[in-house]
Design goal:
The protein is mainly alpha-helical. The protein folds into two domains: 374 residues, MFS general substrate transporter like domains (Growth Hormone, Chain: A, Up-down Bundle), CATH 1.20.1250; 54 residues, no CATH class. Helices cover 79% and strands 0% of the residues. The chain has 18 helices and no strands. α2 packs parallel to α5. The N terminus and C terminus are likely disordered.
Length: 481
């Protein structure tokens, strides 16, 4: 005799299987979405970081073809950093308010167009203008990328994802000179700016399936604040770059310096009263956020200065080709790719304070090892040990630094938090490169190179000390992602 249980049992089991299958499909879909988001973030940021460093080994070739000397070389680097640093704040606000995927698309298309303009530039002026445009487009890439990660992952999974992002993007900063050097030697410096086409195309294809949340009806952009920030930074950087040539007392230095300082001060005041500030000052009430950003200032100023002087001196001072000068930093790239994800996971589990302290100090030691470089140049004994120590320090530092700063802020504001941190890092690098003439004494000879290495070590030691004194370890959160 058939009972009710016999009749309903199979149906219940079938329903249970269907529900289990649905949950599995949702889980699999979630994993696929997380992986997709991570690769979008990596590729979008990769484009910006790669182009920010590939230029270093191309500078001597640009100077030989277009002329302009050290001043033009500085502007080719800082023209990109000015708009990148200033507009990154605006881009962070826009990404939080209007959608990260939308901002990414705008940045990718703009970056590609500007790269083509750089590749066909007939003179230094057009080249610098195109670099300004490229930096403006790049500003829309990095904050949105990190905001996608922080809104998709949390806890130790977020730290590991940021570690993976760091290994590729910071690896791009270091592998850029290798790729750029090979293109400069084998073809032309112009091709070094066209290597973005493939990652831009792939990222645009991936991001097409990512949907943004509904736009906020009260979303606004602080146009006045953006203008004050951009022109304020522009005036300050112009004064730093041109000061070694004209002197501090020249009107062309005094006027931009004072005007830039006043406008940037007005920008900070504006952020206290603006309805939709592009740099909310209340973020800096969070201890790990403001301390991490102070450490960022020292560390990234040192990174920019180090990358600039090493790439140029190895070619113009040590006589290496552009390819060999780029390959000189390959150990740093390898260490970053191999270890960054693991370091990010460990920092998420144990806390970032030790990592953010030991890492910069190791990098400083690596920079001091470059003091062994002499007129009788030998890469294997004078440069390679520095690159290994520097690479270990960089690997230990960057992922914990990034995850600590972003983890201190609510995920809903991750776009602007990322933008502030990236803007600070770019502005720090911008000022360091702008001051290179003062640091090296106007000429990047061996003595000037050694002076720059000492300044780099001091900046990095300061970053480590700030991290030790200021960073507090938070309790680990649950893994999501």
């Amino acid at each position: 005799m058939r009972t009710a249980e016999d009749g309903f049992g199979p149906r219940i089991r079938r329903c249970a299987l269907l529900l289990t299958g649905a949950r599995r499909r949702r889980t699999l879909t979630g994993v696929t979405h997380s992986t997709r988001v991570l690769w979008i973030a990596i590729l979008a940021s990769f484009v910006s970081f790669l182009d920010g460093t590939v230029v270093n080994v191309a500078l001597p070739a640009i100077d030989r073809e277009l002329g302009g000397g050290l001043s033009t070389q500085q502007w080719v680097v800082d023209g990109y950093l000015i708009t990148l640093g200033a507009l990154m704040l605006v881009a962070g606000s826009v990404s939080d308010a209007f959608g990260r995927a939308l901002v990414l698309r705008i940045g990718l298309v703009g970056f590609g167009v500007a790269s083509i303009a750089i590749a066909v530039a007939p003179d230094p002026l057009i080249l610098v203008i195109a670099r300004l445009a490229q930096g403006a487009a790049g500003a829309f890439l990095v904050p949105s990328s990190l905001a996608l990660i922080t809104s998709t992952f949390s806890g130790a999974a977020q730290a590991k994802a940021i570690g993976t992002w760091t290994s590729f993007t910071t690896g791009a900063m270091v592998v850029g000179p290798v790729i750029g050097g090979a293109l400069v030697d084998l073809a032309s410096w112009r091709l070094a700016f066209l290597i973005n086409v493939i990652p831009i195309g792939v990222t645009l294809w991936l991001v097409r399936g990512v949907r943004d949340p509904e736009r906020r009806p009260d979303a606004r952009i602080d146009v006045l604040g953006a203008a004050l920030c951009t022109f304020g930074l522009g005036g300050l950087v112009f004064a730093f770059i041109e000061q070694p040539r004209l002197g501090w007392g020249h009107p062309a230095i005094v006027v931009p310096l004072v005007a830039g300082a006043v406008m940037f001060a007005l920008f900070l005041l504006r952020q206290r009263t603006a309805r939709s500030p592009i740099m909310p000052l209340d973020l800096f009430r969070v201890r790990n956020f403001w301390t991490g950003n102070v450490a960022t200032t020292f560390v990234y100023a040192a990174l920019a200065l180090n990358g600039f002087v090493v790439a140029i001196y190895l070619q113009e001072g040590a006589g290496l080709s552009a390819t060999l000068a780029g390959l000189a930093s390959l150990p740093v790239t390898i260490l970053m790719i191999l270890l960054s994800s693991r370091v990010g996971a460990l920092a998420g589990r144990w806390g970032a304070r030790w990592f953010m302290t030991v890492g910069p100090i190791l990098m400083g030691i690596g920079s001091l090892l470059l003091l062994t470089v002499s007129d009788d140049f030998n890469y294997w004994w004078q440069v390679l040990p520095s690159m290994i120590v520097f690479g270990l320090g960089l690997t230990i530092t960057v992922s914990p630094l990034t995850s600590t700063i972003l983890g201190a802020i609510d995920p809903a504001r991750s776009g602007i938090a990322s933008a502030v941190n990236n803007a600070i890092s770019r502005v720090a690098g911008l000022i360091a490169v702008a001051a290179i003439g003062t640091i090296v004494g106007g000429s990047l000879d061996l003595e000037g190179f050694h002076r720059a290495c000492i300044v780099v070590a001091v900046l990095l030691a300061a970053g480590g000390i700030v991290s030790w004194l200021g960073i507090r370890t938070r309790a680990p959160a649950a893994d999501v992602g």
